[in-house]
Input
Amino acid sequence: MEKELNLLSNTMNLIHDIFKLEYNCFETEEAVLKFCEENRAIEEQSWLSVDALKLILDKSHADYINHFEDLLHIRIVLFYYNDKPVALGPYLGEEMTIGQCIQTCNQIDKKRLDAKDLLIYYGKYPVIPENVMDRIIRGITRSLGIENLCEHYTRYKGHKNDEVSDSKLAKVSDANIEAHYITEREYMEAIKRGNTRETLHYRKLLSENAAGLWTRNFTIQDMKFGLAVNRAMSRIAAYEAGVPAPIIHKITTKESAAIAAAQNAKQMDEACENMLKEFCEIIRIIKNKKYSAMTQSIIYSINQNYMNDITVKEIAEELNITESYMISRFKEETGNTPAMYLRQVRIKEAAHLLISTNDEIQKISGTVGIPDANYFVKLFKAEFQMTPGAYRKLHKI
Output
């Protein structure tokens, strides 16, 4: 049971980190009370009364993914894991404008919010389009091993007697939907194998299929949502392949920042492809050399930061372990200390630059993270038994 709870917690925390989507397990009555107090804005949101929410948790379809939307367009998704209710949300299906807020307020008989207050209320919640939430749910259920659940949709129009079931709440095209989900599984399997070519191939197919499933023009913002879903799938696949969580976090954080700064679709595509190439590379390392998660994390940190003024002490602090323990374990597994491995990476990269560029030796030295050119020459001679100049003359075409 503890293992299953940890799996649930890890999966939900991963989704929260990516989409800022809250989740609740409602294990106590106090948790139900707190949820209602924090999210109920007006009395007409009757489902957010304690008694009503307890009834929903007790009576909802245990074999279904249950979708709820109230009269303020606040949504939650409820499912059951080991007979425990798990609620995703609240969230909004779209960004709400001041015009929509005015319209919503006009539809409420007893106005308890003006449009500006309603807009502030909406600001508490993440905006997750329905097609994105659909894929989030499929990722969660696949990770938890509770796939193939039916889906049930309910709109709450104000009071319990006004509940309306609506199987068309989420308007998702079914033209190629099954093929799309099969491609998603193939995509994740390609990542887990560390096969870069197949991963990029399936990623291209997913992009093309996703664009075809939309019923309106595919905007830059839509692409960002799609890439966020892609990032979630990639993280899950990498984690299942054995990539340590700190590495996953570094890779996806870098991709997320690059996409946020991107000016066009091409730059976003490049950021996504770089993330996938890094995942595949580290997965191949894991499969070829059975290093511990700690050693993999050290190797990754060095390979990604050798050009900077990085120290062994900083790597140890980042991994929250002592420097002496890190050195001992790393040497036991690889035969080298972290400092020796860092020097090897720097010198090998310098050797590559010597024969592939015309840069001066001092510039190459700085590029690989060794600002003292004289010290660089000393290290290079120790590795290759010749000076950098002699190496370039011997090997450069």
Q: What stands out?
A: The first helix runs from residue 2 to 19.
